[in-house]
Amino acid sequence: MNQNRVHNFSAGPGALPLPVLMRAKQELIELPNIGMSVLEISHRSDIFNEIIQTTQKNLRSLLDIPNNYHILFLSGGASLQFSMVPMNFLRNSGETAYYMVGGTWGEKAIEQAIREGDVCRLWDGTSEQFSRMPSFNEIKPISSGAYVHITSNETIQGIQLQSEPTFGVPLICDMSSDFLSRPVSVTNYGLMYAGVQKNVGPAGVTVVIIREDMLERIPDGLHSMLDYRVHVAKDSSYNTPPVFSIYMANLVTEWLLEDVGGLAKMSDINQEKADLLYSTIDNSTGFYIGHAYEDSRSVMNVTWRIEDKTLEEKFVTEAYDSGLYNLKGHRSIGGLRASIYNAVTLESVHALQGFMLDFQSRWE
Ligand SMILES: Cc1ncc(COP(=O)(O)O)c(C=O)c1O
Question: Of all protein residues, whose CA lies closest to atom 9 belonging to ligand 1?
Answer without folding.
Answer: 77
